[in-house]
């Protein structure tokens, strides 16, 4: 999967930037830099399958070339087995948190631990074997749907691919295509809607049977109806796993077990949607702002579920 992501990164360099979103390009840059930055330490141990918690312990982090720290002595403990949303104003560091869990970046100070193991001291392979990620833009390749899903797990059987597609609730659609799982989709997935592409990306993640599913603005680019439908699928898929879902769209997080609000390098509020509304703090403010906006856009709705 990571090897593939890395290959994708190479391929991406030869594709005009115009077809990739800024987010995808940023991610690709991260992957390109990754082999040196995220290398294993000598004597790195194997991380057992995640069972208790993911913790940020006084983590400080500043991107190279930037003056301002994104995280400053940031501490947060996330219990496994829950659906957890990370929300906050644009630029507050939501994606950065996921990047740090994935060890695409390492903290300048402090540490990120899984079940008490500093993730810098374990092998990258064991760290990521239990994880899968879905981004806002996921590369689909000019090959069959089956092969596109199998990118998540090289040796997945046809049955596993199909099971993953069922969980992502895209199986029926695939079966309605003339060539079913053998249907070749274009590089840009032109033949598919934004929601269908995203469901294929979810199937690609689920085929890994990850204990930790990370979603970075995975439904933010979709129209509201598609977004809601995919979020319902994700909540089902997340059962029995840990899901960390970063988004700036609060309508996506209402049903999550726990919502963490981050702002200016700190986790400032946490709780359920109802608890956070009752707090009358930043979450409430963001919620009210977005409710006004969606009321306005319902009148002048220019949302588009394709690119
Ligand atoms: P958004 O909701 O806009 O996606 P976010 O909360 O996910 O934002 P991050 O993407 O984590 O925020 O970014 C936090 C800060 O770090 C921002 O100021 C951003 O401009 C900066 N930043 C992010 N990635 C990089 C990078 N690769 N190099 C330099 N600065 C970066």
From TrEMBL:
Protein name stated in the entry: ATP-binding cassette subfamily B protein
Domain ABC transporter: 54-289
Job of this protein: Involved in beta-(1-->2)glucan export. Transmembrane domains (TMD) form a pore in the inner membrane and the ATP-binding domain (NBD) is responsible for energy generation.
Similarity section: Belongs to the ABC transporter superfamily.
Species assigned in the record: Rhodopseudomonas faecalis
Subcellular localization(s) per the UniProt record: Cell membrane
Coiled coil: none
């Amino acid at each position: 999967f990571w090897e593939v992501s890395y290959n994708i990164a190479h391929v991406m360099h030869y594709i005009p930037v115009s077809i990739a979103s800024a987010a995808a390009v940023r991610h690709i840059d991260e992957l390109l830099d990754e082999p040196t930055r995220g290398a294993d330490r000598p004597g790195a141990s194997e991380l057992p399958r995640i069972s208790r918690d993911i913790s940020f312990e006084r983590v400080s982090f500043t991107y190279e070339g930037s003056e301002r720290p994104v995280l400053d002595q940031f501490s947060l403990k996330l219990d496994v087995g829950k659906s957890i949303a990370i929300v906050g104003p644009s630029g507050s560091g939501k994606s950065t948190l996921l990047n740090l869990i994935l060890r695409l970046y390492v903290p300048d100070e402090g540490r990120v631990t899984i079940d008490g193991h500093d993730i810098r001291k374990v092998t990258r392979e064991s760290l990521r074997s239990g994880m899968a990620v879905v981004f806002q833009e996921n590369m689909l390749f000019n090959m069959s749907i089956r092969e596109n899903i199998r990118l998540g797990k090289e040796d997945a059987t046809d049955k596993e691919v199909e099971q993953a597609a069922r969980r992502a609730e895209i199986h029926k659609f695939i079966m309605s295509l003339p060539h079913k799982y053998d249907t070749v989709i274009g590089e840009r997935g032109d033949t598919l809607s934004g929601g269908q592409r995203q469901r294929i990306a979810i199937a690609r993640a689920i085929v890994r049977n990850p204990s930790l599913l990370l979603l970075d603005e995975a439904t933010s680019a979709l129209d509201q109806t598609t977004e809601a439908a995919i979020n319902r699928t994700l909540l089902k898929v997340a059962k029995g796993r840990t899901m960390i879902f970063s988004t700036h769209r609060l309508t996506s997080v209402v049903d999550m077990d726990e919502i963490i609000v981050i702002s200016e390098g700190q986790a400032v509020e946490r709780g359920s949607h109802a608890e956070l509304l009752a707090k009358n703090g930043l979450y409430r403010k963001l919620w009210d702002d977005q409710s006004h906006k969606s009321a306005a856009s319902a009148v002048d709705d220019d949302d588009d579920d394709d690119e």
